[in-house]
Amino acid sequence: MSRDSIDSHMIRVLHTLLTESSVSRAASLLGQSQPTVSIALRRLREITGDPLLVRSGSRMVPTSHALTLIEPAAQALSSIDAILHPNTSFDPVASTRTFRIGSPDYLDVFFVPAVIDAFHQAAPLAKLEFKHLMMVDGGYENGLETGLLDLVIGNWRTPPEHLHLQPLCQDELVCLMRAAHPIRAGALTRDAYEQAEHLAVTTYNTTAWGTIDTELARNGLTRTVTTTLPYFGMAPYVLVRSDLLFTTTRALASHYARLLPLRIEPIPGGASALTYYQLWHERTHRSAAARWLRQLVANVARTLVSETR
């Protein structure tokens, strides 16, 4: 037999022999006869090139080389058991793993804090990392495929078909402007909207900007964007010092309208709601830990929706 030829059964025999230091006790634990285990010991000696067990007085003891094999054998058996008997349960209270979620920064002020709070209450020993989609090498799709991300949250009009998705909630588009804007409250007409200068945020692939313009086009509206920013969190502070209009979701607009001298106006003629999704790859579709994370995010979304109604 080749020295590198060993199967899972022989590894189990090896581990039992070395931990018990007895052919008879190993045979009993393995449910085999002593002659069968003795034959296996001879084969293991050929494979390893080491006696493994040697006599010391009336008993057998592992050789120094055999002692170094106990831990690798145990690890191998643990890995084999994980393959043959996959763990279908997940205990968030005891987990110490790190979860990674990709999200755009327009979720930072209302959704992300709620997810973080729920996560650490449910999994106090685990870690949670949020990655801005602009910071994920190769884009969020590559992040999900390679395992850099466990989950991605966003509001794409047409999510990638090859990813699993779950709708989380919906949010309408509104217009945010400074409280003392020349356009009076309730006077944002279609003409006023189209003649005004607009502020927009461009993400790593301009998806958010494209989504908003697509929705406006459905209602026969256009806008003239004269200023662009890389982050949503900068936009409200620019609005305070300008006459620019900013089309965004009501959740984001409501948050900053409570903090800054800003007001919200409806989109002229209305606009259909945007749907927020969570996306994940097939590689984590059946993972108990990943399923738990997705359920937690979905529960947070439902809670936020009920609180705003």
TrEMBL record:
Keywords: DNA-binding, Transcription, Transcription regulation. It holds the Pfam family LysR_substrate. Residues 6-63 form the HTH lysR-type domain. GO terms for molecular function: DNA binding; DNA-binding transcription factor activity. PROSITE patterns: HTH_LYSR. Belongs to the LysR transcriptional regulatory family. This is LysR family transcriptional regulator. It comes from Caballeronia hypogeia.
